[in-house]
Amino acid sequence: MNGPWHSYVYAVGRDGGDLDAVAAELTGLRGASLRTVAEDGLTALVSSVPADDFGTDGLTERMADLTELEALARAHHEVVEAAHARTTVLPMRLATVYLDDTRVSAMLSERALEFGELLTWLDGHAELGVKVYADPVRAQVEAAPAAPAAPSTGSGRAYLRRRRDQRRLRDDAYRAAGAVAGAVRDTVAPLSRGVVAHRPQQGELAAGPGENIANEAYLVPRTRVREFHQALAGLTGSDAGVRVEITGPWAPYSFATRPAESGAA
Predict the structure, then answer these.
(1) Where are the beta strands (DSSP E) in the chain?
(2) 211-221 and 194-198 strand pairing
(3) 99-117 pLDDT per residue, tens
(4) CB–CB of 13/90 below 8 Å?
(5) Can you give the pTM of this predicted structure?
């Protein structure tokens, strides 16, 4: 192997062979072989990455390139989800890079107690995401069939009436979306161990029509994932101008502690 190389960490779990099996079955970023680094009862899932591309300057360039970022995120996610399917893991944040395996071992040793407690807390759980969207355009389309025939185009009064109705439908859609977001939290609180409120997604990150007004992650027992979906079934699309999107189950990205910044390359 030509160098220099850094060590890219995907996830951390307990010793026991499950992550060794994942390392033997999959490849990581750019098709690199996976391996494990073990210390103090913990195991990190790791691959080697070129230092030039994944040092501080290289990473800044990679993260600024949307094509590179998408490929990086996809490869990272595939490895983490494969590990999560076998055992409880702490997913590391995207682009967690250490100078070498020795630094990875030191990180595991330094955070052994913290990571061990987190892994115990996460045992048997998965992450489910719930996003609520306000969609005034949909509300207007759904209301159109019931609207009376439009007056002549030249009528200033008719124009003002249409503008007023559009504002009313827009306001109603946002109020309804806010009410649905509150109902989501109340409905699934008894089914989840924890919740993290993320910043609503905007621009290219937002999926589908409408404006994302609530973006939350829930830590749910694996045995209750189906119940979680069923509990929210009555809220998805129940109000004009409101859309609810449920994603997962995923590895618990929102509930994992990040590695110490001082140990990273």
Answers:
(1) 5-14, 34-39, 42-50, 89-91, 97-98, 125-134, 194-198, 211-221, 242-250
(2) antiparallel
(3) 999 999 999 999 999 999 9
(4) yes
(5) 0.79
- Token pair for 206: 């937002």
